Amino acid sequence: MKFLDEYQNSELATKLAHRIANHSTKPIRLMEFCGGHTHAIMRHGIRQLVPATVEMRAGPGCPVCVTATTDLDKAIALAWLPNVTITTFGDMMRVPGSYSSLQRTKAEGADVRVVYSTIDAMEIARENPKKSVIFIGIGFETTAPTIAASIIKAQQGGIENFHVLSCLKLTPPVMKALLDSGEVKLDGIICPGHVSVIIGSRPYEFIPADYGVACVISGFEPIDILLCVGKLVEQIEAGQPKVEIAYRRGVKPQGNRKALELMGEVFQIDGANWRGIGIVPQSGLKINQKYEHFDAAKVFSGLLRCARNDKPVREPKGCRCGDILRGVATPFECHLFGKVCTPEKPVGPCMVSSEGACAAYYQYGSPESSGKI
Amino acid sequence: MPKVMCLAIPMRIASIEGDEAEAEVGGVVRRVSIALTPEAKVGEYVLLHTGYAIGVIDEAEAKETLKLLEEIASFSEIS
Ligand code: SF4
C-alpha cells in the first residue's frame, strides 16, 4: 500500500539502526509519548534494533489508559439512566471501572454500543429520537476535532438528543507535567505523529527551550521511527535539542488550521484528570457554553449525582498502570504482568487497550526477544 | 480498520460530495468525512482517523523523505 510499504523495508531498517549505533556514544533515555508508537516499536522489535545506549520508555499516550477511573464510573452511571444509549470506541468496553465495566453493564441490560466513529453515534441518535445518545469522548488532539466536527454537524442537523461526555486530553500540557515532576529523566521525546498532524510542531517548542529535552515528531512505520530515533540521537549528541519533524508527509509546522478552528469553536481548555497522574491544569477540553446542550456532563449532572450514590473510586489492586503511564516503570516491572494480568483477563487498562503498553509488551515482547521487521 | 485509535491510515480520495468523500485503500472503499480537510482533492491521499480525514498527505515531502532514505541506503553500502 502506498505510503506504508516503503516505510517497512527491513534491510533499510537495519542500515538505519547501524547509523544510529555509529552516532550514539552515551546512554540516553527516550520516551515515546503515543501508545501507537509503543505498539509499533514492540511489533517491529525496535527496542532490540537500536543500540544498547538508547533506552525507550512508553508514555501516557494511550487514550483509553489515561481515562480516569472516576470518568469511567461516570460513563457507567450514565448508562443506567432511563432512555440513555451509550456509544463508545470498542477499546473502552473492557476497561475496569471501580465496580464494573461498560461490557458488564451492557451484559446486565444497559444499552451500550460500540461505534467506530462519532458519525455512527450521531446516526444512532438520528434514528432514535426518543433516546439520549451519549458518546464517551476519549482521545487526544487527534480525536478532538472529529468530535468537534460531529457536534457542529449535530447542531446544524438539529440532532438534539446527541451528547458527548468529554474526557478529551491535551498532549503538550501533560508532557510539561511529567517533566516538572522530575520522576523520570528524559533526554528526548518521540512526539506523536497524528496529534501533530492537528497541532503542528510549534506547541512542543517550550520543551527543548525550557527543559533541554529533544523533540522529534514521528510517523508510525518502522522506518519512520528509526529516522526519528536517529534525529534524536544526533540532537542529543550535539547538545542541541530542538523540535524536528521526521514525519513530513503528514505534519506541517502550523498543523491543520481547519481542525484547530473547529476545536476552538466547540471546546474550551480545562483541567483534566489523568489515571496515574492526577489532575493536570489546562490539559483537557470541555464543551463550551455555546454548545452546552451537547455536553453530557452538564445535561445529566443532576441525575448523575443521584445515580452515582457517591461510592468511593477504587483502582485495580496491584496494577502499576499509573507508574507505566508516567514512564516510571515498564510493564515487565509489574508483578501481575503475564501471570495474573493477560489480554484475556486484564487487570488494568494498560492491558485492555490495544494501544496500552502492557498489551503491546505482552503481545510482542519478552525482555530477550530479538528485533525483526 | 485499525484497532489502534491514534493510528490513521493513508487512503486515496476517489470522489467528493460536499464534506463527504469516498476513500479507497487496498480495494476497500469507505465513506469518510472531509470536514477537517476541505482542501482535499480527488486522487490525493488523506490520513483517516475514526471516519474523518485529519490531514492530506504531502506527496512532495514524501518523495523528499524517500530520496533521503535512498541516500542513506546507498551510503551505508559503501562504508
Ligand atoms: S500488567 Fe496488568 S496489572 Fe500490571 S500494570 Fe499492566 S495492566 Fe496493570
Number of strands of chain A: 11
Helix and strand element order of chain A = HEHHEHHEHEHEHEHEHHEHEHEEHHHHH
> How much is the radius of gyration of chain A in Å?
21 Å
Small-molecule binders here are: iron/sulfur cluster
Distance between the termini of chain B: 41 Å
Average pLDDT over all residues of chain A = 93
- Which CATH class of the largest domain in chain A is shown? Alpha Beta
CATH class of chain B: Mainly Beta
Percent of residues in β-strands of chain B: 35-45%
Classify the secondary structure makeup of chain B into a structural class. Answer: alpha+beta
Contiguous runs where pLDDT drops below 50 for at least 5 residues of chain B: none
**Helix and strand element order of chain B:** EEEEEH
The CATH architecture of the largest domain in chain A can be given as 3-Layer(aba) Sandwich
Give the strand line-up of the largest sheet of chain A: 2-1-7-8-9
